[in-house]
């Protein structure tokens, strides 16, 4: 979408005022996680939203802790890898959804919860 200004047209930043916490999975510099995070950063830039990146070194235990902390921080959305599985992540997803937080899983599925988010 474009908005007219006195200087021409500028893109409308549809994500202004939105905060997304991205639980990156790997450690900083991890080839896979870095590519995913770079894409998220570009999307955040393009949309004008705030992106908070949390790294976990692929530790499932840390991912669960980071997910709980993300919900407590009350961002507008949380991006997670589902490696912890539905049993561990399910109650956290329920809490997030009850607080109006959108949860998106990447590279894994939460079949039971996908319709809730």
From TrEMBL:
Q: Name one Pfam family in it.
A: Peripla_BP_4
Domain Periplasmic binding protein: from-to ranges: 31-113
SUPFAM superfamilies from the UniProt entry: Periplasmic binding protein-like I
Give the protein name, as stated in the record. Answer: Periplasmic binding protein domain-containing protein
